[in-house]
Every structure is written in structure tokens, then in C-alpha cells.
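Lab meeting, action items carried over

1. Structure of the two-component assembly. Owner: GW. Status: complete.
Input record:
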Amino acid sequence: MSNKTILRYTSNQRTNHWLVAILFFMAALSGLALFHPALFWLSNLFGGGPWTRILHPFMGVVMFLLFLGLVFRFWRANYFIANDRLWLKRIDRVMANDEEDVPPVGKYNAGQKLLFWTLLLCMLGLLFTGLVIWRAYFSEYFGITLIRWAMLLHALAGFVLILCIIVHIYAGIWIKGSVSAMLHGWVSRPWAKKHHELWYREVTRDEAPPPPIRKKG
Amino acid sequence: MASQDIIARSATTTPAPSVRGLEEVAKLIDTTKCIGCKACQVACSEWNELRDEVGHNHGTYDNPQDLTADTWTLMRFTEHETDAGNLEWLIRKDGCMHCAEPGCLAACPSPGAIIKHANGIVDFDQDHCIGCGYCITGCPFNIPRISQKDHKAYKCTLCSDRVSVGLEPACVKTCPTGAIVFGTKQDMKEHAAERIVDLKSRGFDNAGLYDPEGVGGTHVMYVLHHADTPKLYAGLPADPVISPLVGLWKGVSKPLALLAMGAAVLAGFFHYVRIGPNRVEEDEHPSAPDTSVHEVDPAVHTFDPRGEGRP
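Predicted assembly:
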């Protein structure tokens, strides 16, 4: 095995990811401030209640647009393959760090793929319900029953999104090497082989063997 | 009003001061006595210093067309043809009903922006209002309006400023036919009962009091000729309740969602504590340092005073 590291995320991909992450934190904290009285103090982070109300929807729209960037970059790698079903069946062994009988997966495992599609669903739900309840610009075009449904579904989608991100962040803490992959882009070969073997085989397949040393003359 | 008189407060999960017992007040609007003169609208606008924009005539007597941030009460006119073929002009003074269980207060996310006084008045404190419009979503009567000037929510205050110093609301003071009366809720109910007896004796068999139970009763009540079909009166809801959608959104889901998020974080923490991180082998057994390369730490200086290597 060569010692060269493998580029898992380009600088554009990393930048896009972390921009979404920053916007997520802003939108989530301001959303939680409006969701539960116990968290209303979070509105102070954004300059008070009215500023939280003004900024939250804009943060959400920007987060959605940036997330679309991630979708366009990664959606192909998130198609499900045959091994994913088996991987999910053995999720208990994955959780126990006992990966002997866990089938090899591609660039993303089934959990990451489920996360990707759930995030996309939540983002779409948040966008459309959010527009309906955006009182300053759009709510006047909608009936009260639709607004009430949108309020409830917006809260639900936000809740699912936050839960997903809690899982996502913990997975990053748990699987050593994944945070640094998203921070500076590179992963070690043993890491790629251990966690994403099919992807590892794919990216190393075309590797030319080291050029033989030729004697001149 | 004294702060002890606030018995409910939006976005507050602990009990509000509740030692003082104030008698509940109510405004009784007798639609059977109303002549639609709109003096109440004018009195409201004068007392509260509200000047709505002059609108356009849309072919009805309703003017303006709807409640706004500058119009807190509005006469709604309905031409109702009875089964006997008679025309009845049903006029209802619309505005905040001051529910005992206010949907606006349940929905409001800003602590103290909506308060309920011990006498039953539900009041908006625009100083704490953040302009989100959740009160509109929560209200079963479609009353609160957000001003486009300052993005704050407004509605009838039941003249809480006047009531607190022993005066009746401005609309009550001005009503020329006595169709609007004000007093303790108990007195208003008794007054309504007398009116209903009178109306029934004059052929309005379905006359009755509108004090809907679904919102715990209201502190603005109507005497209706057709209490069996409140819908006739410009869509007055027959059985108003806080929408179950709002109840779910601002009810059980709030603490449960917080609990679930906290549980998810704890689950992660204890997974780390019990199972531990997932490392690749190489991290656990770093290869021995390469001794073929001599490493010099430039931060470490050695000084030999003799200036020569010694054996």
C-alpha cells in the first residue's frame, strides 16, 4: 500500500460544506429561540427578538441555496447500492466498532446516504413552509389553515434537521479522521480502505505503478 | 394596571402572579339593538389616536373593509333573508373577543408580548412584540393585524387603560342605543339573560348569548337573534377553539422536541464513553520514528564554553 494520502474533498467542496454548517447554526439557533420559551434568550445572539424574526428567514434561504450546492456536488455519490441494505442490517456491529462482517461501502455508507436525502427533504420542507409563514412578505397570500399546517410542518422539519445534524456531528467525532477530511481534505489510505473500501478501490484503480527506473544509454 | 394583575404571560412556563383576585369584566354587544351607526368605530379611533387610511367604497356599508393595525373594531353588515322571506340586517361589531384561553397568547414566542389581566382583558405589549405574526396563526377569530409601518401586532385592548381607572371602554361610552354595555362578566350574563327573555317573547326563538366554551368563554360577548347559527353574522364561528394544529405546534411538541434533542446529544456522549472512538489501526500504532534522519530542535541551544568538542 502506497503512503500517499487521498483527496476526499476539494477546497470548493469543503468551503461549501462549512458555509452550510455556519448558516445551519445561525438558522437553527434563531429558530429554536422562536420555538421554545426556554430558548428565547438565544435571540440575544442575533440582536434581540425583532432582529431574530427579521434575520431567521434570510438565513434559511441562504442555507438552502448553499445546500443546493452540496446536493449538486454529492447527489450521485448518494445513490443506494446493493451493499447498503446489508450495511444497514449490520448497523449494530457498526455502532459497536466491530466491522468484521460489515460489507464494504462506496464513498458514503448507507447512514450517510440516508442523512443526505433526509437533509434534502427537510431543507425543501423548511423552504416551502417557511415562505408560507414569512409574515413580512408572503403570508398574506395564504389562507389561515395552510399557514397553521406550514407552522407545524416547519417546526417538525426543523426538529428532524437538528436531530440529523446532532447525529452527523457525533459521527464526525466518533469516526476519527472524518473531521480532518472535511477540514483539510485529505484522508489516509488505511482510513479510506477501512471506512469506504469500494471508493478506495475506485480511486486507486487507475493508479499507475511507479515508473521503472530506466538506465540510459 | 399593577403587575400583580397579570395572570398569564406569553412564552412563560412558570405561573404568573396570582394572589390578587379581580372580578372578571365583560363587554356585552347586543346585536339586536345595534343600528350600525359606527359611533363605536369612531370612538375607538379617537380614544386610541388611530387614523386609518381612507379607503374605497366596495358597495357595502363595511368601512373600512377589514380590521387593520389602525382599525381595532369594525361593524360588519350582513343582509340575511329569513325562511319567511323577510330581510334582516344583521350588524356585528367585530374585534378582539378577549378569550379566557387566548390562542394568540398560546402561540406567541416572545415572553410578555401578550398578557392576560386578572379581569380577563388580553393585551398586546408592542414593546415586546417581535412581529412574527404567530398571534394571527393562533387566533380563532382572525383578529390581530401586523402594522406595515412598524411590524408590530395590534388589536382591541378593551380600553385596558380606561378600565384600569374605573372607566368603561370608549365604544361603550359612545354607543347611542345602549347596544354595548360593560360591567362584571356575571352582571353582563344576567343582563343578557333578560334581553334573551325579551327577544324570545317577541318571536326570536333562537335568541341567545354568544360566550363560546371552546375558548373558555370570552370577555366580549354577543346577544344574537340567531344564536343557533352564529355564522350568519359575517362568519362568526359557531364553536371556536384554538386549532389543534396550533395546539400541537405550541403544546406537547415543544417540550418533547427539546427532550428528544437533549437525548440525542446524551446518546452520542454515552456512545463515546461506552464504545469509544473508531480509529484506523495506523493511529493506534504509529510507526517508530525514522532514525536515519538526524533531527535538530532549533529551540534547544547547547553552549560549550570551551568551544571545542570533548571526548
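2. GW to write a short summary for the group page. Key points so far: Chain B touches chain A at residues 11-13, 109-111, 128, 130-134, 136-137, 142, 146, 151, 243, 245-246, 248-249, 253-255, 257-258, 260-261, 264-265, 268, 271-272, 275-283 (CB under 8 Å). Chain B is about 25% helix and 15% strand.
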